[in-house]
Specification:
binds 7,8-dihydrobiopterin, 6-stranded parallel β-sheet, alpha/beta, globular, 2 domains
Length: 370
Protein backbone atom coordinates (compact mmCIF):
# COMPACT_ATOMS: atom_id res chain seq x y z
CA UNK A 1 0.00 0.00 0.00
CA UNK A 2 1.43 3.37 -1.01
CA UNK A 3 2.10 5.52 2.05
CA UNK A 4 0.56 8.94 1.34
CA UNK A 5 1.99 12.18 2.71
CA UNK A 6 0.38 12.85 6.08
CA UNK A 7 -0.11 15.80 8.37
CA UNK A 8 0.65 14.44 11.85
CA UNK A 9 0.29 15.95 15.31
CA UNK A 10 2.96 14.60 17.68
CA UNK A 11 2.35 15.18 21.42
CA UNK A 12 5.34 15.04 23.76
CA UNK A 13 5.73 13.75 27.33
CA UNK A 14 4.44 16.07 30.08
CA UNK A 15 7.16 15.21 32.62
CA UNK A 16 9.66 17.74 31.35
CA UNK A 17 10.31 19.91 28.30
CA UNK A 18 12.26 18.42 25.37
CA UNK A 19 15.96 18.99 26.08
CA UNK A 20 15.61 18.78 29.87
CA UNK A 21 16.62 15.10 29.96
CA UNK A 22 13.67 14.41 32.30
CA UNK A 23 11.76 12.65 29.52
CA UNK A 24 14.51 10.06 29.31
CA UNK A 25 14.47 8.06 26.10
CA UNK A 26 11.24 9.60 24.86
CA UNK A 27 13.08 12.85 24.03
CA UNK A 28 15.49 11.09 21.68
CA UNK A 29 12.65 9.10 20.14
CA UNK A 30 10.56 12.17 19.33
CA UNK A 31 13.45 14.21 17.89
CA UNK A 32 14.72 11.43 15.63
CA UNK A 33 11.20 10.46 14.54
CA UNK A 34 10.38 14.05 13.51
CA UNK A 35 13.61 14.17 11.48
CA UNK A 36 12.78 10.84 9.83
CA UNK A 37 9.13 11.69 9.07
CA UNK A 38 10.11 15.04 7.53
CA UNK A 39 12.65 13.17 5.36
CA UNK A 40 9.70 11.07 4.13
CA UNK A 41 7.81 14.26 3.26
CA UNK A 42 5.21 14.33 6.06
CA UNK A 43 4.10 17.56 7.77
CA UNK A 44 4.58 17.61 11.56
CA UNK A 45 2.94 19.68 14.28
CA UNK A 46 4.74 19.08 17.60
CA UNK A 47 2.83 20.00 20.77
CA UNK A 48 5.19 20.07 23.76
CA UNK A 49 5.73 21.74 27.16
CA UNK A 50 7.12 25.30 27.18
CA UNK A 51 10.91 25.35 27.01
CA UNK A 52 11.05 22.41 24.59
CA UNK A 53 13.77 22.83 21.96
CA UNK A 54 14.61 20.78 18.85
CA UNK A 55 18.11 20.70 17.34
CA UNK A 56 16.75 21.56 13.87
CA UNK A 57 14.08 23.55 12.04
CA UNK A 58 12.06 22.76 8.93
CA UNK A 59 9.26 24.35 6.94
CA UNK A 60 7.48 21.00 7.38
CA UNK A 61 7.59 21.40 11.20
CA UNK A 62 5.43 23.61 13.42
CA UNK A 63 6.13 23.62 17.18
CA UNK A 64 3.37 24.63 19.67
CA UNK A 65 4.63 25.20 23.22
CA UNK A 66 2.25 24.81 26.16
CA UNK A 67 2.88 26.22 29.65
CA UNK A 68 1.93 24.31 32.81
CA UNK A 69 3.13 22.18 35.71
CA UNK A 70 5.08 18.97 34.89
CA UNK A 71 3.28 15.67 35.34
CA UNK A 72 4.81 13.49 38.12
CA UNK A 73 6.77 10.61 36.57
CA UNK A 74 5.34 7.10 36.96
CA UNK A 75 8.85 6.03 37.84
CA UNK A 76 8.51 7.92 41.12
CA UNK A 77 5.09 6.53 41.95
CA UNK A 78 3.85 3.19 43.23
CA UNK A 79 2.23 0.65 40.89
CA UNK A 80 -1.11 1.12 42.67
CA UNK A 81 -1.10 4.93 42.73
CA UNK A 82 -4.04 6.78 41.18
CA UNK A 83 -3.58 9.28 38.34
CA UNK A 84 -2.47 12.63 39.75
CA UNK A 85 -3.32 15.86 37.99
CA UNK A 86 -1.43 18.74 39.68
CA UNK A 87 -3.01 22.21 39.65
CA UNK A 88 -2.20 24.14 36.48
CA UNK A 89 -1.13 20.79 34.98
CA UNK A 90 0.49 20.86 31.54
CA UNK A 91 -1.00 17.47 30.54
CA UNK A 92 -4.66 18.52 30.02
CA UNK A 93 -3.45 21.77 28.44
CA UNK A 94 -1.39 19.82 25.89
CA UNK A 95 -4.48 17.83 24.94
CA UNK A 96 -6.81 20.84 24.84
CA UNK A 97 -4.47 22.15 22.16
CA UNK A 98 -4.66 18.82 20.29
CA UNK A 99 -8.46 18.93 20.41
CA UNK A 100 -8.39 22.52 19.12
CA UNK A 101 -6.39 21.71 15.97
CA UNK A 102 -6.83 17.97 15.35
CA UNK A 103 -9.31 18.44 12.48
CA UNK A 104 -6.56 19.93 10.30
CA UNK A 105 -4.47 16.75 10.69
CA UNK A 106 -4.65 13.15 9.46
CA UNK A 107 -3.74 11.60 12.83
CA UNK A 108 -2.25 12.21 16.27
CA UNK A 109 0.73 10.31 17.74
CA UNK A 110 1.05 10.38 21.53
CA UNK A 111 4.35 9.85 23.36
CA UNK A 112 3.12 10.42 26.92
CA UNK A 113 2.91 7.42 29.19
CA UNK A 114 -0.22 8.87 30.77
CA UNK A 115 -3.84 7.97 31.34
CA UNK A 116 -5.51 11.03 29.80
CA UNK A 117 -4.30 10.71 26.18
CA UNK A 118 -5.14 6.99 26.17
CA UNK A 119 -8.65 7.66 27.52
CA UNK A 120 -9.16 10.41 24.90
CA UNK A 121 -8.68 7.78 22.15
CA UNK A 122 -12.32 6.74 22.75
CA UNK A 123 -13.69 10.24 22.31
CA UNK A 124 -11.81 12.05 19.54
CA UNK A 125 -12.82 12.21 15.84
CA UNK A 126 -9.19 11.91 14.74
CA UNK A 127 -7.34 8.66 15.46
CA UNK A 128 -4.81 8.88 18.28
CA UNK A 129 -1.86 6.49 17.97
CA UNK A 130 0.22 5.68 21.09
CA UNK A 131 3.87 4.69 21.16
CA UNK A 132 4.03 3.06 24.60
CA UNK A 133 7.40 4.01 26.07
CA UNK A 134 7.61 1.93 29.25
CA UNK A 135 6.93 -1.47 30.73
CA UNK A 136 3.85 -1.70 32.98
CA UNK A 137 4.98 0.48 35.88
CA UNK A 138 1.44 1.40 36.92
CA UNK A 139 -1.72 -0.66 37.22
CA UNK A 140 -4.04 2.08 36.03
CA UNK A 141 -1.85 2.51 32.92
CA UNK A 142 -1.87 -1.23 32.35
CA UNK A 143 -5.68 -1.19 32.56
CA UNK A 144 -6.24 1.69 30.16
CA UNK A 145 -3.69 0.30 27.65
CA UNK A 146 -5.46 -3.07 27.71
CA UNK A 147 -8.84 -1.34 27.26
CA UNK A 148 -7.60 0.68 24.27
CA UNK A 149 -6.07 -2.50 22.87
CA UNK A 150 -9.52 -4.14 22.95
CA UNK A 151 -11.11 -1.19 21.12
CA UNK A 152 -8.35 0.10 18.82
CA UNK A 153 -5.61 -2.57 18.67
CA UNK A 154 -3.95 -0.97 15.64
CA UNK A 155 -3.37 2.33 17.40
CA UNK A 156 -0.91 0.96 19.96
CA UNK A 157 2.74 0.29 19.24
CA UNK A 158 5.68 -0.76 21.40
CA UNK A 159 9.43 -0.45 21.18
CA UNK A 160 10.06 -4.17 21.69
CA UNK A 161 8.10 -7.42 21.92
CA UNK A 162 9.47 -8.06 25.44
CA UNK A 163 8.16 -4.69 26.62
CA UNK A 164 4.70 -5.46 25.21
CA UNK A 165 4.58 -8.74 27.17
CA UNK A 166 3.76 -6.63 30.25
CA UNK A 167 0.34 -5.81 28.75
CA UNK A 168 -2.83 -7.78 27.98
CA UNK A 169 -3.33 -7.10 24.28
CA UNK A 170 -6.14 -8.12 21.91
CA UNK A 171 -3.77 -8.79 18.99
CA UNK A 172 -0.08 -9.45 18.48
CA UNK A 173 1.80 -6.29 19.45
CA UNK A 174 2.88 -3.80 16.79
CA UNK A 175 6.63 -3.36 17.42
CA UNK A 176 8.29 -0.29 15.86
CA UNK A 177 11.67 -0.40 17.64
CA UNK A 178 13.28 3.01 18.02
CA UNK A 179 15.46 5.32 15.97
CA UNK A 180 18.41 7.68 16.29
CA UNK A 181 19.69 10.39 14.00
CA UNK A 182 22.54 8.68 12.09
CA UNK A 183 24.38 11.93 11.48
CA UNK A 184 24.74 12.42 15.24
CA UNK A 185 26.84 9.31 15.83
CA UNK A 186 30.35 8.73 14.51
CA UNK A 187 31.92 5.27 14.26
CA UNK A 188 35.01 4.90 16.49
CA UNK A 189 37.15 1.80 15.84
CA UNK A 190 39.37 2.11 18.95
CA UNK A 191 39.27 -1.28 20.74
CA UNK A 192 41.31 -0.50 23.84
CA UNK A 193 39.32 2.12 25.69
CA UNK A 194 37.73 2.15 29.16
CA UNK A 195 34.44 0.58 30.27
CA UNK A 196 31.31 2.71 30.13
CA UNK A 197 27.80 2.82 31.59
CA UNK A 198 25.01 5.23 30.66
CA UNK A 199 21.44 5.89 31.77
CA UNK A 200 19.33 7.69 34.31
CA UNK A 201 21.10 7.08 37.63
CA UNK A 202 18.24 5.38 39.51
CA UNK A 203 17.75 1.96 41.14
CA UNK A 204 15.91 0.38 38.20
CA UNK A 205 19.04 0.89 36.05
CA UNK A 206 21.37 -1.22 38.22
CA UNK A 207 24.55 0.92 38.09
CA UNK A 208 25.94 -0.87 41.19
CA UNK A 209 26.49 -4.07 39.21
CA UNK A 210 28.59 -2.36 36.54
CA UNK A 211 30.68 -0.62 39.23
CA UNK A 212 31.36 -4.04 40.80
CA UNK A 213 32.62 -5.31 37.41
CA UNK A 214 35.00 -2.36 37.02
CA UNK A 215 36.21 -2.71 40.59
CA UNK A 216 36.87 -6.47 40.23
CA UNK A 217 38.80 -5.79 37.00
CA UNK A 218 40.78 -3.04 38.75
CA UNK A 219 39.45 -0.39 36.35
CA UNK A 220 37.51 2.84 36.32
CA UNK A 221 33.92 3.06 35.02
CA UNK A 222 32.88 6.08 32.98
CA UNK A 223 29.26 6.96 33.86
CA UNK A 224 26.99 9.25 31.81
CA UNK A 225 23.44 10.26 32.76
CA UNK A 226 21.17 12.42 34.88
CA UNK A 227 21.68 11.67 38.61
CA UNK A 228 17.99 11.28 39.38
CA UNK A 229 18.45 9.56 42.75
CA UNK A 230 21.28 11.20 44.71
CA UNK A 231 21.40 8.89 47.71
CA UNK A 232 21.36 5.87 45.41
CA UNK A 233 24.42 7.32 43.61
CA UNK A 234 26.38 8.14 46.77
CA UNK A 235 25.48 4.77 48.34
CA UNK A 236 27.23 3.09 45.40
CA UNK A 237 30.24 5.40 45.64
CA UNK A 238 30.58 4.92 49.41
CA UNK A 239 30.68 1.12 49.09
CA UNK A 240 34.19 1.41 47.60
CA UNK A 241 37.30 2.92 49.16
CA UNK A 242 38.85 3.68 45.76
CA UNK A 243 37.35 6.08 43.24
CA UNK A 244 35.82 3.69 40.64
CA UNK A 245 33.22 5.93 39.03
CA UNK A 246 34.19 8.80 36.74
CA UNK A 247 30.95 10.85 36.61
CA UNK A 248 30.52 12.40 33.16
CA UNK A 249 27.00 13.89 33.70
CA UNK A 250 24.11 14.19 31.25
CA UNK A 251 25.69 15.44 28.01
CA UNK A 252 24.16 16.63 24.74
CA UNK A 253 24.25 13.86 22.14
CA UNK A 254 27.23 15.16 20.17
CA UNK A 255 29.51 15.28 23.27
CA UNK A 256 28.07 12.03 24.70
CA UNK A 257 28.65 10.02 21.53
CA UNK A 258 32.18 11.39 21.12
CA UNK A 259 33.14 10.19 24.62
CA UNK A 260 31.09 6.99 24.49
CA UNK A 261 32.75 5.98 21.20
CA UNK A 262 36.12 5.73 22.97
CA UNK A 263 34.88 2.88 25.23
CA UNK A 264 35.85 -0.72 24.51
CA UNK A 265 32.46 -1.82 25.88
CA UNK A 266 29.24 -0.47 27.37
CA UNK A 267 27.85 -2.44 30.33
CA UNK A 268 24.03 -2.37 30.61
CA UNK A 269 22.42 -3.63 33.81
CA UNK A 270 18.64 -3.07 33.87
CA UNK A 271 16.69 -4.26 36.94
CA UNK A 272 13.30 -3.68 35.32
CA UNK A 273 11.60 -4.64 32.05
CA UNK A 274 13.57 -2.03 30.07
CA UNK A 275 11.23 -1.00 27.24
CA UNK A 276 14.01 -0.56 24.72
CA UNK A 277 17.53 0.45 25.81
CA UNK A 278 18.45 3.64 23.95
CA UNK A 279 21.99 3.80 25.28
CA UNK A 280 22.64 0.32 23.87
CA UNK A 281 21.82 1.49 20.37
CA UNK A 282 23.72 4.76 20.82
CA UNK A 283 26.79 2.75 21.84
CA UNK A 284 26.42 0.47 18.82
CA UNK A 285 26.05 3.53 16.57
CA UNK A 286 29.56 4.53 17.72
CA UNK A 287 30.92 1.00 17.22
CA UNK A 288 30.89 0.14 20.94
CA UNK A 289 29.85 -3.47 21.68
CA UNK A 290 27.41 -3.92 24.58
CA UNK A 291 27.34 -6.40 27.45
CA UNK A 292 23.79 -6.45 28.84
CA UNK A 293 21.51 -8.40 31.13
CA UNK A 294 19.03 -10.35 29.03
CA UNK A 295 15.94 -8.55 30.40
CA UNK A 296 13.46 -6.44 28.43
CA UNK A 297 14.51 -4.62 25.25
CA UNK A 298 18.26 -5.29 25.34
CA UNK A 299 17.56 -8.98 24.68
CA UNK A 300 16.07 -7.98 21.28
CA UNK A 301 18.80 -5.53 20.31
CA UNK A 302 21.90 -7.56 21.12
CA UNK A 303 22.68 -10.56 18.94
CA UNK A 304 24.89 -12.54 21.33
CA UNK A 305 28.43 -12.79 19.96
CA UNK A 306 27.67 -10.52 16.97
CA UNK A 307 27.22 -6.97 18.35
CA UNK A 308 27.67 -7.75 22.05
CA UNK A 309 26.97 -10.33 24.75
CA UNK A 310 23.81 -11.18 26.70
CA UNK A 311 24.19 -12.21 30.33
CA UNK A 312 21.68 -13.75 32.76
CA UNK A 313 20.10 -10.93 34.80
CA UNK A 314 22.04 -10.04 37.99
CA UNK A 315 24.90 -12.40 37.03
CA UNK A 316 27.89 -10.15 37.80
CA UNK A 317 30.37 -13.00 37.20
CA UNK A 318 28.77 -13.37 33.76
CA UNK A 319 29.34 -9.66 33.09
CA UNK A 320 33.00 -10.03 34.05
CA UNK A 321 33.48 -13.09 31.80
CA UNK A 322 31.87 -11.26 28.87
CA UNK A 323 33.96 -8.14 29.47
CA UNK A 324 37.12 -10.24 29.13
CA UNK A 325 35.89 -11.57 25.76
CA UNK A 326 34.66 -8.27 24.30
CA UNK A 327 37.59 -7.86 21.88
CA UNK A 328 36.12 -10.84 19.97
CA UNK A 329 33.28 -8.59 18.75
CA UNK A 330 33.97 -6.72 15.50
CA UNK A 331 33.09 -3.08 16.23
CA UNK A 332 31.91 -2.60 12.63
CA UNK A 333 29.14 -5.19 13.30
CA UNK A 334 27.70 -2.81 15.89
CA UNK A 335 27.56 0.15 13.50
CA UNK A 336 26.13 -2.04 10.71
CA UNK A 337 23.39 -3.35 13.03
CA UNK A 338 22.53 0.25 13.99
CA UNK A 339 22.23 1.46 10.40
CA UNK A 340 20.10 -1.50 9.39
CA UNK A 341 17.75 -1.50 12.42
CA UNK A 342 17.73 1.74 14.37
CA UNK A 343 18.50 4.77 12.21
CA UNK A 344 15.96 7.60 12.19
CA UNK A 345 15.12 6.63 8.59
CA UNK A 346 14.13 2.99 9.21
CA UNK A 347 12.33 4.00 12.41
CA UNK A 348 10.27 6.65 10.59
CA UNK A 349 9.40 4.11 7.86
CA UNK A 350 8.13 1.65 10.50
CA UNK A 351 6.04 4.40 12.16
CA UNK A 352 4.73 5.56 8.76
CA UNK A 353 3.60 1.97 8.01
CA UNK A 354 2.00 1.65 11.45
CA UNK A 355 -0.02 4.88 11.08
CA UNK A 356 -1.01 4.28 7.45
CA UNK A 357 -2.20 0.77 8.26
CA UNK A 358 -4.07 2.08 11.31
CA UNK A 359 -5.82 4.77 9.23
CA UNK A 360 -6.62 2.29 6.48
CA UNK A 361 -8.13 -0.16 9.03
CA UNK A 362 -10.75 2.41 10.06
CA UNK A 363 -11.86 3.02 6.47
CA UNK A 364 -12.22 -0.75 5.93
CA UNK A 365 -14.52 -1.05 8.96
CA UNK A 366 -16.67 1.90 7.81
CA UNK A 367 -16.79 0.35 4.35
CA UNK A 368 -18.18 -2.94 5.78
CA UNK A 369 -20.89 -1.10 7.75
CA UNK A 370 -22.43 0.56 4.64
N1 LIG B 1 5.69 9.34 33.56
N2 LIG B 1 3.57 10.29 33.92
C1 LIG B 1 4.59 9.97 33.09
N3 LIG B 1 4.47 10.29 31.77
C2 LIG B 1 5.44 10.00 30.87
O1 LIG B 1 5.31 10.30 29.68
C3 LIG B 1 6.62 9.34 31.34
C4 LIG B 1 6.71 9.03 32.70
N4 LIG B 1 7.82 8.44 33.18
C5 LIG B 1 8.97 8.10 32.34
C6 LIG B 1 8.78 8.47 30.94
N5 LIG B 1 7.65 9.04 30.50
C7 LIG B 1 9.91 8.24 29.98
O2 LIG B 1 11.11 8.73 30.53
C8 LIG B 1 10.13 6.77 29.75
O3 LIG B 1 8.96 6.27 29.29
C9 LIG B 1 11.23 6.56 28.77
Amino acid sequence: MLNKKLKLILVSTPIGHLGSGKGGGVELTIVSLIKGLILLGHKIILIAPKGSKLPFESELLEIRLIDGVDQPSWQHQKKTDPVLIPSNSVLPKLWEDVIDIENESDAVINFAYDWLPLWLTKTQPKKIFHLISMGAESLIMKEIISEISQLYPFQLAFHTKKQSNDYTLKTDPIVVGNGFDMENYLFNENKNGPLGWAGRIAPEKGLEDAVKVANDLGEKLLVWGLIEDKEYASKIENSYTKEIIEWRGFLPTNKFQEQLGRCRALINTPKWNEAYGNVIVEAMACGVPVIAYDIGGPGELIEDGFNGFLVKPNDIEGLIKATKLISKIKRKNCRDWFEKNASHKVFAERVENWVNKGLYKKSLRTFKLN
